């Protein structure tokens, strides 16, 4: 899907995604001190807005201008006087990271304390390029957090894309960042319960946390 496809999808409904943060994002970031974070492919901002509510200074980017405008509107409503903690911009995940938001940010590479990719489902080589751009944006010691639909989800789980080309298991992410200055903090496939009309189903998500050297 290109940007116009995503624009059309977002424009067709009031809210494409949940307003709640992803459960794994909330779990991981609750253990980190709030600082500067880049949320890539942020959609309507469910994770970005939650991060700002926790005290993070968030730069949230997405390929879709419609999604970014909706994120700005939702952020203003939910954050109120704290809306300055979140800056939403249109950007491509495979290009250089946009400038950081928040006090002390100067736009140089290596200015983020965390970079989040939540359900960025791209094929190779675009996916590996996005990981590289994310690592470049991190300060030493910063965390790169990847949450995505696992490859195994196609045959063993529920929901998500139907093309294996855009799915990835933890070992694939680790292989794709080989040679980059990162260490693996955590990597695994996690169960995510999904309510459906036929009862609860289980989606399989890849969750990988990397630390920038």
Automatic annotation (TrEMBL):
Task: Identify one Pfam family in the record.
Answer: Methyltransf_25
**Entry's Gene3D superfamilies?**
Vaccinia Virus protein VP39
Q: Where is the Methyltransferase domain?
A: 37-142
Q: Which residues form a coiled coil?
A: none
Task: Tell me a GO biological process for this protein.
Answer: methylation
Q: Which UniProt keywords apply?
A: Methyltransferase, Transferase
Membrane: present as a keyword of the record?
A: no
Molecular-function GO terms, alphabetical = methyltransferase activity
User: Known CDD domains for this protein?
Assistant: AdoMet_MTases (cd02440)
Q: What name has this protein been given in UniProt?
A: SAM-dependent methyltransferase
Q: Which organism is it from?
A: Terracoccus luteus
């Amino acid at each position: 899907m290109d940007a116009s496809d995503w624009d059309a999808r977002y424009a067709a409904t009031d809210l494409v995604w949940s307003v709640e943060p992803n459960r794994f994002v909330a779990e991981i970031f609750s253990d980190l001190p709030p600082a500067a974070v880049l949320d890539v492919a942020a959609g309507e901002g469910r994770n970005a807005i939650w991060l700002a509510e926790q005290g993070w200074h968030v730069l949230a980017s997405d390929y879709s201008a419609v999604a970014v405008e909706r994120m700005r509107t939702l952020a203003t409503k939910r954050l109120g006087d704290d809306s300055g903690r979140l800056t939403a911009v249109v950007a491509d995940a495979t290009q250089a990271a946009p400038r950081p938001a928040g006090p002390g940010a100067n736009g140089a590479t290596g200015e983020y304390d965390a970079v989040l990719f939540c359900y960025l489902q791209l094929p190779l080589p675009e996916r590996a390029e996005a990981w590289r751009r994310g690592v470049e944006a991190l300060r030493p010691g910063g965390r790169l957090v990847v949450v995505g639909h696992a490859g195994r989800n196609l045959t063993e789980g529920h929901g998500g894309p139907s093309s294996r080309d855009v799915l990835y298991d933890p070992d694939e992410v680790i292989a794709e960042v080989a040679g980059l200055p990162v260490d693996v903090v955590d990597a695994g496939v996690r169960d995510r319960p999904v309510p459906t009309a036929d009862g609860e189903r289980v989606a399989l998500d890849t969750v990988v946390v990397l630390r920038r050297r």
